[in-house]
Amino acid sequence: MAELSAQASQPAADARSRSMSEGLFGWLLVAPAMIFIAVIVAWPLAETIRLSFMEAGLGGEKFVGLENYEDLADSRKFHQTVVRTFYWMFLSVGIKLVMGLIGATLLNAAVPGRALFRVLVMPPWVIPMAIGCIGWLWLYNGYFGVLSGVMMKLGITDGPFEFLAYKSSAFYSAVVTDVWVGTPMVTLFFLAAMQGVSRDLYEAAWVDGAGRWYRFRRITIPQIMPVIVSMALLSAIFTFNSFEIIWILTEGGPRGATTTLIIDTYKVAIGNYKFGEGAARAVIIVVLLAAFSLIYLFFLNKINKRYGVK
Amino acid sequence: MMDRYSKLQMVGIYAALAVFLTFILLPFFEMFMASLRPLEHLFRSPYQFWSDDFSFQAYKDMWVTVPLLGRYIFNSIFIATSVTLITMFFVVPAAYAYARLQFPFKNITLGIFLGVNMFTGAVLLIPLYRVLRTMGLLNTYWAMIVPGVAFLIPTGIWLLRSYLEKIPRELEEAAFVDGASRMYTLRRVVLPLAVPGLIVVSVAVFIGAYAQQFLFAITFNQTRELQPLPAGLFEFIGYQSVTWNEMMAAALVGVLPVMLIFLFLQKYLVAGLTAGAVKE
Predict the structure, then answer these.
(1) What is the pLDDT of residues A82-131, one digit of tens each?
(2) How far apart, in Å, are the Cα atoms of B42 and each of A149, A250, B114?
(3) Is the Cβ–Cβ distance between B128 and A44 less than 8 Å?
(4) Rounded to whole angstroms, how far apart are CA atoms B271 and B200?
(5) CATH of residue B152
(6) Predicted structure pTM score
(7) So where are chain A's domains?
(8) Which of A302, B162, B192, B199 has its CA 20 to 30 A from that of A11?
(9) C-beta atoms of B103 and A27 within 8 A
(10) Neighboring chain A residues of B150 at a CB cutoff of 8 Å
(11) Is A193 in CB contact (< 8 Å) with chain B?
């Protein structure tokens, strides 16, 4: 680096470095990041695939072929986990997108104080998830959490209600927390997209007598559609892989009610040292996510064509 | 005018904003309230919204209950800072290459980088555990730094690339025509112009690094002295009793550094982060 930084007027150094082709220089710049990712992500991924054909634990490894996959294919519990994971993803992402649209619309409204409101929306996104979850852990507590307290005061429940103790309430509580974590980012991106929509469009529609709802439906939504669809995919991948929220709130319980694929994989592999069985689950996660993304991108292309977006 | 709202509409907007912000801020409010209540009062049922024995005692006691608390906060900041510096070292040249240069397999390799975003650490934990063990990095700071860097490089490249694309090409071309080498142009022409973008991306990476520590810490590190705050906080549980009020106080104190950074830079940060998503 030192000799390359020599003054531009020194012809000798120039001739050497200028002769470097653009292609070679490009690779030189990308290579360090590439190698790092290869060692820390690509190689472990290959290892995961190899391990998924092994019976592996702390003791050693033994090749078992497709046995790990066959076990999963036969397991009713695992089928339920897959279905639950997709339900978790669609539900949570759906709510996040709706909340994000509502939030962005509100924050985009020309009312006094909006600069402050925009800042106040961000904290859940900025702080570590694990710490936000501790707050929710407290909120969901039946004896001293405010939610149960308010419900008792209003007479909805007679006694303390432990949100995380029952199968269905634990699942939906986890969804609410996940929505809480994910909504600020979605809101922020939608807001930025809305601000990018040309005012001329709105003014033209306004002159023609179009109301707010009409303008929202016919101008805002189509204009920010590219951002909505890309946020939906990004958000779906995050939610599918969401680990910390569920782990801190319930560790996948009660009785497996909040066990998604990621939680299941973690419990099997790291909790029980069944590396092979865990690896098979990890491979299935990657395959499912890749399949989902491809199908999604396929439909995205169609939608984009319909809306005339490149 | 088009943007004017009637009184009723204004009330509606503020009411909806109030509901929205209540949802967002409720956990923080509840954490703060819990941190003010004396422990024996916390477990009083039925729930009482207000009580007259609020105090900041927990903010003093927490340092005694978990003596390493200060260390945990330091660890969090230290790990996040290291991750940020190392990530930027990899991201800056790569982002420049993707923004400006033509080279073989450019689009494919960019796609691979972005594909990394699909796997969170959780999927790769098992082999990653072994890689780190082979390298002898388990139970060191590196065990939390190295995976952190890997999962932030793609995001960093993506964000910085869209920023660099906005810098006018003419300046580089002029330098190049004047006989400057490629590396010289990058170092002396492009990087100084990109400083605002570098700051935005660094802060985004820092926030990401601060947020993602939990999983790597509980899986790859057993050394108590090295734990970051999100993992260390759970020490408040597992003593004879759970000192919830001190745990809440510690959590709030622990997020203060990132909140302050965010507040100072939020205007630039928000604009910079969303620039990639919004095409003019």
Answers:
(1) 999 999 999 999 999 999 999 999 998 888 888 888 888 888 888 888 88
(2) 12, 22, 46
(3) yes
(4) 9
(5) 1.10.3720.10
(6) 0.84
(7) 21-62, 67-307
(8) B192
(9) yes
(10) 36-37, 40-41
(11) yes
